Amino acid sequence: MSSQWNNHGFPFLPGYTFRDITQSAFHRSQTLSYKNGYALPLRPSVGIGQEPLLSEQLTQQHINELSFERPDIAYATNDQPQYEDFIPAHVALDKKILRFHAYFLEEILYSPEEEYRVRPVMIYYYLEDDTMCIIEPTVENSGIPQGKRLKRQRFPNNERGEHYQWKDLNLGMDLEVYGVKYHITQCDPFTKEFMESEGIVLNEPEPMPEDPYSRRNKPNLELSHTTTSTFDKLYQFLHMDRK
After folding, report:
1. Do you know which InterPro entries this protein is assigned to (predicted)?
2. Are the C-beta atoms of 166 and 98 separated by less than 8 Å?
């Protein structure tokens, strides 16, 4: 491989910038002087080794043009922010709950009078963490264990380990959880507004079916009126005394 040589007969070394080795002055010009006891900065006219500076080669006209020249850079103003405010999901969806009305059929065994009962429930869906719970309204003196049927948790959707999401819920569908089918009939106004805002088309609401047992044992509340008797024993005693 052939080496390259400079004008003074010395080879170039790879990775190094060549300097004139014949140069003997390497000091820097003095840029500070004192006058009447005060330090006065001086503008250097030459660099290290008395080499002329590029700034001294510029004419006064070029210096004036550079001082008044504006760069073609566009800066954003303070009125237009560069980013949008980030709100975490657990903050944006905090205390936002979807509520659905539903029921399930309880099969009655060994009873000649009834085959099943209709038991209404409320399904709550918490948007902040995609958990759900099912609560059955309590009826006084019903003799049936009621209240919270399933505590707040993520309900399994299939055998692959997936869970129910709010996109999977709709009116008129069966929500099967742990072997029990809950048929969804209606929802509250907030749930309807939220689902429609997310592009979910809700089905028509369905009426809650009447429980056959409650219908059969409903008391007869027909109005009855008894006409009072005009016969007054006190009046008879006062007017028929001694007769």
Report:
1. DM10_dom, EFHC1/EFHC2/EFHB
2. yes
The one-letter code for the residue type at 154 is R
Mean pLDDT of 130-143: 87
Residue with tokens 């000091």: 27
SS3 state of residue 194: helix
What is the 3-state secondary structure of the chain?
Answer: CCCCECCCCCECCCCCCCCCCCCCCCCCCCCEEEECCEEEECCCCECHHHCECHHHHCCHHHHHHHHHCCCCCCCCCCCCCCCCCCCCHHHHCCCCEEEEEEEEEEECCCCCCCCEEEEEEEEEEECCCCEEEEEECCCCCCCCCCEEEEEEECCECCCCCCECCHHHCCCCCEEEECCEEEEEEEECHHHHHHHHHCCCCCCCCCCCCCCHHHHHCCCCCCCCCCCCCCCCHHHHHHHCCCC
Percent of the chain with pLDDT over 70: 75
* Residues 127-148 as b or e (16 or more Cβ within 10 Å = b): beeebbbbebeeeeeeeeeeee
pTM: 0.55
Query: Is residue 111 packed enough to be buried (19+ CB in 10 Å), middle (13-18) or exposed (0-12)?
Result: exposed
Integer Cα distance of 176 and 89 in angstroms: 27
Residues 46-67 have pLDDT tens digits of 777 677 776 666 666 777 777 7
Cα 172 from Cα 183, distance rounded (Å)? 7
**Strands 131-136, 38-41: parallel, antiparallel or unpaired by DSSP?**
unpaired
